[in-house]
Design a protein that fits this description.
The chain has 336 residues and is α/β, with parallel strands linked by helices. Helix content is 43%, strand content 14%. The chain is built from 13 helices and ten strands. The strands form two sheets. It has an eight-stranded parallel beta sheet. A two-stranded antiparallel sheet has the order 8-9. Helix 10 links the parallel strand 6 and strand 7. Helix 7 packs across helix 8 and helix 10 runs antiparallel to helix 13. The longest helix is centred in the middle third of the chain and has 18 residues.
Length: 336
């Protein structure tokens, strides 16, 4: 184990990842519909502030501002020719912040979905998807990313393409899918499916798991599904800070820092090794998560009743795997 993330995992029972990228950037003035990746070049101080906010709040890993940095997504902004540049600069700014942290901090090169439908259902071929992801990976590698972080994927074909791109770039990688509807991804993948897929890859990720989705309750139910498959590979949980609500012309997430602290402890007790937040997770949430992880004693693996009792109702009775026992529905708790 020579890469930075593996070294960290070898010395710690858990490590903390970062929170939201988009939510934080919108709070800094990013306009809806604009490509966040442009800010790597146009507003570098804001991106430094984004990264530094996560590090100062206690994150051991933070993701680069490159989620939509593939040619397909950037083409929507006429910037498909800037893939390498925007990813390289996004990673280089991260490297700068991590190296100044005074402790080991992992720079994870964020690689989001292409936004296209993979063949045979769609027109995006495996070869073209690999090429897109590889181009992005090479930019992140040159900028100094420690690991590729493939996230919010819904199709197994796209997950496989990203895995091959990581191999071509000779980069360690992690991968998460987003489970939205009744414990399944948009393309129907269940927690059991992902746990099986990961172990069949020629170059499996260092860690795998779930990010985003409906809410922290559902995400932890998915996590328990990974462990039910007997997976011993490190698991990632990056749940949203509550449920989005439309208020005063903007989207707000209702999860309090206290709630996210509870979520982080439940994730750790479930066996998750890499714990972070996704949409709506701000530095104040991260600080509460870090404090809870460091001060609350390790407990037994939580049941579904434990999860729903502390974090609120599941969005559906089913987790997608057929095992729906102990999945009570109740009102969401927004904090004491």
């Amino acid at each position: 184990m020579t890469d930075a993330l593996s070294k960290l995992l070898a010395t710690r029972d858990w490590v903390m990842a970062d929170g939201a990228t988009g939510t934080n950037l919108f709070n800094m003035g990013l306009s809806s519909g604009d490509a966040p990746e442009f800010w790597n070049v146009d507003e570098p101080d804001n991106i430094r502030a984004l990264y530094r906010g996560a590090v100062d709040a206690g994150s051991d890993i933070f993701l680069t501002n490159t989620f939509g940095g593939n040619a397909s997504r950037l083409k929507l902004h006429g910037a498909q020719g800037r893939v390498h540049e925007l990813n390289r600069v996004g990673a280089a700014l991260g490297r700068e912040i991590a190296d100044a942290a005074g402790r080991t901090v992992v720079v994870a090169g964020s690689v989001g979905p292409t936004g296209e439908i993979m063949a045979p259902m769609g027109t995006l071929t495996h070869e073209i998807a690999v090429e897109m992801f590889h181009e992005q990976a090479e930019g992140l590698k040159e900028g100094g990313a420690d690991v590729l972080w493939v996230e919010t994927i819904s199709a197994p074909e796209e997950f496989r393409a990203a895995a091959e791109a990581a191999r071509l770039a000779d980069m360690p990688w992690c991968g998460t899918m987003s489970f939205d509807t009744a414990g399944r991804t948009m393309m129907g993948v269940t927690s059991a499916d992902l746990a099986t897929l990961v172990e069949k890859l020629p170059n499996p990720p260092l860690a795998f798991g779930a990010n985003c989705g409906v809410g922290s309750s559902d995400l932890l139910r998915t996590v328990l599904g990974f462990f039910a498959q007997g997976s011993e590979r490190p698991v990632i949980a990056k749940g949203n800070a509550g449920i989005p609500k439309y208020k005063d012309g903007a989207i707000h997430y209702d999860g309090t820092p206290e709630l996210m602290g509870d979520y982080a402890v439940l994730a750790r007790d479930a066996g998750v090794r890499i714990i972070g937040g996704c949409c709506g997770t701000m530095p104040e949430h991260l600080r509460a998560m870090r404090h809870a992880l460091e001060t609350r004693p390790k407990g037994v693996r939580p049941s579904l009743e434990d999860i729903s009792g502390q974090l609120g109702a599941f969005s559906s009775a089913s987790d997608g795997t057929g095992d729906d026992s102990g999945a009570p529905r109740r009102e969401r708790r927004r904090g004491r």
